Amino acid sequence: MAGTKPAGGPAASPFRFSVRNARLDWRLLAELDCDRIWRETDIDALERALDTVCYGDITVEDPRHVSGTCLARLCVYRAASVHFTGFD
């Protein structure tokens, strides 16, 4: 369990979320082919945009300038990222 002391080892540090302080790179996200990422398990493409997805703050965006297609692409990409980071 997170934050518990493993047998014979040092206590693990508790997980903390980082502050989202970057703007989303919509140009980079628009270049991603989410279908290809899923179909071909394109880890290079997934990792290329990982920082903007993890640390981008969508709350600073003007919703009038963000299309439904962009939001859908962001959701698919975030789901792929979560799926990848949970892989053992």
Briefly summarize what is shown.
This protein is 49% helix and 0% strand. It is mainly α and 88 residues long.
Please give a structural write-up:
Helices cover 49% and strands 0% of the residues. The protein has 88 residues and is an all-alpha fold. The protein is flat. The mean pLDDT is 82.
Q: Shape from CA axes? A: flat
The tally of helices reads: 5
Class based on secondary structure composition and strand pairing: mainly alpha
Low-confidence sequence ranges: none
| Share of residues in strands | under 5%
Question: What would you report as the Rg, rounded to the nearest angstrom?
Answer: 16 Å
In N-to-C order, the SSE pattern is HHHHH
Relevant terms:
single chain, 88 residues, mainly alpha
Write the SSE topology.
Layout: H1 26-31, H2 34-40, H3 43-48, H4 50-55, H5 68-85
